[in-house]
Amino acid sequence: MRALPASVLAVCGLIVSACGGAGSGGTAAGQAANPAATQAGSQARTPAVVTDESGTPAPAERAPAPKPLEGKTVVIDPGHNGGNARNPKAINRKVNVLTQWKACDTTGTATNDGYSEAAFTWDVSKRLVKILKNRGATVKLTRSSNTGVGPCITERAAIGNRSKADAAISVHADGSAPANHGFHVIMPKKINGPVDPVVKQSSDLGVAVRDAFRKGTGLPYSTYIGNKALDYRNDLGGLNLSTVPKIFVECGNMRNAAEAAKFRDAQFRQRIALALANGLQHYLTT
Questions:
Q1: pTM value?
Q2: Beta strand pairing status for 167-174 and 138-141?
């Protein structure tokens, strides 16, 4: 889905200065200062030239190259929330996603041994935030922890809209049949609604992330959803209500034993975050 001037060395012991003044054995009061002393004092105020080890003047310090995502805003939506299961009344209330009414949010899925989708998406998203910020982007999250409830899918879309994000990405993992495997990217369809003007940009974003994700993680395209890991839907509030380019990425199937093992590996989650960052950067800079 954020120049410093050259250093000048003034080394006290390397520059000779002379001081004149009245006193025992010194220049008589009222006598003109020694010209040599005046010259030395002038030299003391002259900046020293920075040189390399051979004594050759070093080139002026160059301004660092601009970061690739400077000026770009990215909104990251970690799917679900760790506290959703504790408040079914809040997350089950219906909200209008324009094509239908849906639950405010859900608990998400989990691996067979209990590693939740909410924990997975939170960890990957935090890693993604760090990478994008290091590349110069301004990054905003739709939730601030993995202990709360929600926000609703409508508010998740609104956060991206208010931020006027250049791109938004919702991070998920699927909970399909154990034999199913692979990742897929979900993009919006036109619905005669607010998302229509950014459907094309969202598709471009989806393709960029799809390609980077495949390259960076080695995971295959989904064997059960989409065409070459691309799926277009009109029933997701986070997409239908978005006025900025936005996609969902289902990083794989948490019910598949092989993919579940990868998701539990912190190093692999870092690979996922890096792949998502590369896909976002490709979209934002081309």
A1: 0.79
A2: unpaired
